[in-house]
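sry for the spam today, last one i promise. struct tokens for design, 106 residues
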């Protein structure tokens, strides 16, 4: 049986809490709702900027391979896959940014 690190459990619990509550549910001692909203907006902006390169690469791949995938019926699946990957990456960046600013989800 493999031992799980306490920090890994805490991180997983935080991720699950965040996933269930959705974005925008952040708490920090002393932070007003306006401060939390401003920090979240800052993290969202950072995440969008950080994810832009990946989105651009995916768009280039879609341009190059789109016809092949359309011919094989895989185009919609690939578009959905790229979209989901980009959303996951963006959410992860926002999560880490907010934790880095001292917030806890939920």
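last one done:
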């Amino acid at each position: 049986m493999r031992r799980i690190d306490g920090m890994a459990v805490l991180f997983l619990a935080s991720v699950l809490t965040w996933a269930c509550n959705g974005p925008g549910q952040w708490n920090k001692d002393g932070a007003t709702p306006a401060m939390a909203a401003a920090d979240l907006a800052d993290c969202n902006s950072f995440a969008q900027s950080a994810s832009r390169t990946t989105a651009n690469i995916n768009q280039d791949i879609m341009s190059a391979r789109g016809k092949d995938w359309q011919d094989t019926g895989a185009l919609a699946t690939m578009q959905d896959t790229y979209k989901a990957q980009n959303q996951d990456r963006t959410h992860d960046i926002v999560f880490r940014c907010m934790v880095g600013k001292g917030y806890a989800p939920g």
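Residues 16-23 have pLDDT under 50 and may be disordered. ok im logging off now
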